[in-house]
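In the laboratory, one determines a bound structure by crystallizing the protein with its ligand and collecting diffraction data. In a computational setting the workflow is compressed into a single prediction: the sequence and the ligand go in, and a structural description comes out. We illustrate the idea with shikimate-3-phosphate.
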Amino acid sequence: MSAPVVVLVGPMGVGKTTVGELLAQRLGTTCRDTDADIVEAEGRPIADIFVEDGEEHFRALEAAAVRAALAEHGGVLALGGGSILDEDTRKLLSGLPVVFLDMDVAEAVKRVGLDTARPLLAVNPRRQWRELMEARRPLYTEVARAVVGTEGRTPEDVADAVLDALELKNA
Ligand code: S3P
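The predicted complex, in structure-token form:
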């Protein structure tokens, strides 16, 4: 199987899955999501994996899920927000058509601030998000071929911008 045609990275709630599905429709392919792969393989929600086995265990599952998806999936691939924390994952992403979907803190709080299904933002979401993004922004930028801002844009607009950025418009 060939490498993914688009890989979406970025913080939780930025719309990777929604935009990924739209991109897949437009490109005539399918969207795969590593969070969904993990939930399916484990038979339990991500929040339960964090609580029962800890973040480190989740990150190991995630690195394996990303490696498998990159090897198997030729369509659009949406990665979990923290997947780029893993150095091997960042190496695997180098040279691939990776797009960083970005958003500012105001937009993040609007979209995911009260979403307790996302364990990392369950307490004090605004501060948590700022700290997460301070640590992660350089990593998202490092792996990305293009950065697309999502503030005030519909998922359709974001999908358009991704296709433009990767010059896939007429693919
Ligand atoms: C996480 C993001 C989540 C999920 C987990 C941890 C993170 O994925 O993998 O809750 O560390 O940013 P989404 O980015 O798909 O929400």
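The CA atoms of residues 20 and 31 lie 6 Å apart. Keep in mind that any predicted model is a hypothesis to be tested, not a measurement.
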